[in-house]
TrEMBL record:
Protein name from the UniProt record: Anaerobic sulfite reductase subunit A
GO molecular-function terms, A-Z: iron-sulfur cluster binding; metal ion binding
All copies of domain 4Fe-4S ferredoxin-type, residue ranges: 213-244, 295-323
Superkingdom of origin organism: Bacteria
Assigned keywords, A-Z: Iron, Iron-sulfur, Metal-binding
NCBIfam families recorded: sulfite_red_A
The species this protein was found in: Sporobacter termitidis DSM 10068
Length: 338
């Protein structure tokens, strides 16, 4: 069961929801890309439905809402430590099925991979999700093959159609709010992608032995270690810690958790001058096997959700989906069957 809403009706609904929630959705920023005169679509606060970008894939995911690019963990003085005040309102995030599956991956890393991370948990427990219906895949999507094209467990669903906006919610509180502003009651099930233009196959029996394959050496020169793929990815979770000391008093400052990239120089530097994975191909190997091998062995499903953002954003046109499809031949090579 669902409801059809007019543009004025859904805007009234969003205004009412904004009393209790900060509303986040994919939003177009004109000229906001790194290239001159090119728009950028990324997550931002919205107040009306016309700000929600439904016709194009966002360049960056929702991840920054739960994992800020730079997050102050605490302030410190010579005598005291104080945590910053957290966001007062809960967050209501509009996202597609692949990104909703990415939330599960982030939860696995930060909540169930040992002791729960208190800073992530504080934001996560005050976050609710509205699924955006996705009737057709974009050119670089491969969510069907990764099993992330259909989602369950969302708090509400939303889809823009030619005759209006459709919403539903399994939760009484949200359902009553939607009904209050609806034009009429109707049958509504959010659309899910059934087929994608890109096909990927993760080979059966994939193991870390594929690390010995020659394919990785190609990326020593092709990859420029910019890390853009990591920052666009909804499931990459690497970060670094930075202590910032204030100029007025060198004994006072703050500790920040800052998003980082396993693909860039310096990420694997260790005390004593050592550094792991100095070659770009080794970094590509590490990232790939973490996404479709190691993570699955630990948690039972792949880390990659097939959103295709890494393919979209790479300045060297390296296709991660193509790398996955090369793993079968790489396994044959290391097993002596190539």
């Amino acid at each position: 069961m669902g409801y059809r809403l007019t543009e004025s009706g859904i805007n009234e609904l969003l205004q009412e929801l904004s009393k209790d929630y900060v509303l986040f959705a994919p939003k177009r920023y004109e000229g906001g890309n790194t290239f001159s005169g090119v728009d950028c679509i990324r997550y931002g606060e919205i107040t009306s439905v016309d700000e929600i970008e439904t016709d194009a894939k966002s360049d960056y995911s929702f991840k920054e809402i739960l994992l800020p690019l730079s997050q102050t963990l605490f302030y410190f003085t010579e005598d005291d430590i104080k945590q910053p005040q957290s966001r007062q309102k809960s967050a209501l995030v509009f996202l597609r099925s692949c990104d909703f599956h990415a939330v599960k991956r982030l939860d696995e890393i930060y909540l169930r991979n040992g002791a729960p991370d208190a800073y992530y948990s504080r934001l996560r427990e005050r976050c609710r999700f509205v699924l955006i219906g996705c009737p057709k895949a974009f050119s670089t999507c491969y969510c069907v093959d990764m099993g992330t094209n259909i989602a369950e467990g969302w708090d509400a669903a939303f889809e823009k159609k030619n005759d209006g906006f459709y919403m539903s919610s399994p939760q009484t509180e949200l359902a009553e709010l939607i009904q209050k502003h609806s034009a009429n009651e109707t049958d509504f099930t959010p659309s899910f992608v059934a087929e994608t233009p890109v096909k990927v196959t993760v080979p059966d029996g994939l193991s870390v032995a594929v690390a010995k394959a020659s394919m990785w050496r190609e990326y020593d020169s092709r990859c420029i270690a910019c890390g853009r793929c990591n920052f666009a990815c909804p499931t990459c979770t690497c970060f670094s810690m930075q202590d910032v000391f204030y100029q007025d008093n060198g004994k006072v400052g703050e500790r920040r958790r800052v998003q980082a990239s396993c693909m860039v120089d310096g990420f694997t530097d260790v005390a004593g001058g050592g550094s792991y994975r100095q070659k770009n191909g080794d970094r590509m190997r590490f990232k790939t096997l973490h996404k479709v091998c190691d993570f699955k062995k630990r948690f039972g499903y792949h880390m990659c959700v097939g959103c295709g953002r890494c393919d979209d954003i790479c300045p060297e046109y390296i296709s991660f989906s193509h790398i996955i499809n090369r793993l079968g031949d790489a396994m044959k090579e290391v097993n002596g069957n190539g």
